[in-house]
Design goal:
The complex is a heterodimer. Chain A is built from five helices and ten strands; from the N terminus they run αββββαβαβαββββα. Chain A has helices at about 5-20, 70-85, 105-115, 125-135, 175-190; strands at about 25-35, 40, 45-50, 55-65, 90-100, 120-125, 140-145, 150-155, 160, 165-170. In chain A, helix 2 crosses helix 5 (about 175-190). Chain B has a domain at about 30-125: Immunoglobulin-like. Classes of the chains: A alpha+beta, B alpha/beta. The interface between A and B is medium-sized, with 18 and 20 residues.
Chain lengths: ~190, ~140
């Protein structure tokens, strides 16, 4: 290879990678950091570790199964996006971590998530362990009284984690399934 | 003669004000850079720890769809900071485009109040909205 070409090629690839990030609809981290791993009780009966999904693109969401609005909309959107991805949907893993360990045990999360998409995996654990995970990801969750029970006001965005386990982007609440498909295809092509 | 001169002067001012208002309301907007950059300076955490009550970011950031609707947050401090919606590592930035006009309130350790609001206004379609947008741009222009 010509020495000049050898020098220019990495620059071109770097520029192309930058252009890809710029074209994401979601918010992009620069540079992306390694997504902190965790060990929680999975709704599928196994230990839930992020590294188990290395090689797939992960959408990481935080919420609770009694959430009246944000969580059902987000999960329905993600289920729709996975369908729209067709066969590529197998390259996607949705991980949903509860902020409400008091009510959300693994079985309750399994039933709740299966109503959206049976491949979605939930994570629960002790309050202390879930606090630590939220801290690592900068997730806010505040318990508030509501009628005779309680609700949580929580961060509503989702994280997009690439195949190498890098925390790549942040999708604010309210985006459509098509927006997710657009960004997930870009991350899957990386 | 003096009255005539005074009237002429007032007429000129009135014509100028009407002309400027019409221009502000109807002239097409030249798009500014779409990115609004906000940085946490290096040493912020250390200064806070030493008791200094510094406010380094506005409590409210205003963006406008289609004009300046991409928020760029950069953490130049030596420690991780919850900045806007997320945790940013030292040296890391987040480029966040907004597509929906709304008011977003986030937890933010960079603020003394621990909170930050981002108001995303709709694209100024009406003459009144354009005037408001231009006045806001004029008042917040960096010198």
């Amino acid at each position: 290879m010509h020495p000049v070409l050898r020098l220019l090629l990495p620059l071109l690839f770097t520029a192309a990678a930058g252009a890809t990030d710029q074209s994401l609809i979601a918010g992009v981290f620069s540079p992306p950091r390694q997504a902190p791993d965790f060990s929680l009780s999975g709704s599928n009966g196994s230990e839930l570790k992020l590294q188990s999904y290395r090689g797939r693109v992960v959408v990481l969401a935080f919420g609770f199964t009694s959430c009246p609005d944000v969580c059902p909309i987000t999960l329905a959107t993600l289920a729709q996006a996975r369908k729209k991805l067709g066969a590529d949907g197998n390259e996607l893993q949705v991980v949903y971590i509860t902020v409400d360990p008091e009510r959300d045990d693994a079985e309750r999360m399994r039933i709740y998530l299966a109503a959206f998409d049976p491949t979605f995996v939930g994570g629960t654990g002790t309050a202390g362990r879930l606090d630590a995970v939220r801290k690592e990801y900068g997730i806010a969750a505040t318990r508030r009284a509501a009628g005779t029970g309680y609700l949580y006001a929580h961060s509503s965005f989702t994280y997009l984690i690439d195949r190498e386990g890098k925390l790549h982007a942040l999708m604010p609440y309210g985006h459509s399934a098509d927006d997710y498909v657009h960004d997930l295809r870009i991350l899957m092509a990386k | 003669m003096n009255a005539l001169r005074r009237h002429g002067f007032l007429c000129a001012i009135a014509i100028f004000v009407i002309g400027a208002t019409a221009w502000a309301g109807f002239a097409p907007i030249k798009p500014p850079p779409r990115e609004a950059l906000f940085e946490i300076p290096q040493g912020t955490w250390a200064r806070r720890m030493s008791g200094s009550r510094i406010e380094i970011l506005p409590a409210e950031i205003r963006l406008t769809l289609g004009l300046r609707d991409i928020l760029v947050l950069r953490n130049l401090d030596d420690v991780p900071q919850i900045f806007g919606p997320t945790l940013l590592m030292p040296g890391q930035s987040l480029r966040l485009p907004f597509a929906v006009a709304s008011s977003y309130t986030f937890v933010c350790t960079a603020h003394l109040s621990g909170q930050m609001t981002i108001v995303v206004d709709p694209w100024p379609a009406s003459p009144r909205a354009r005037i408001r947008w231009r006045v806001h741009e004029l008042l917040t222009a960096k010198t």
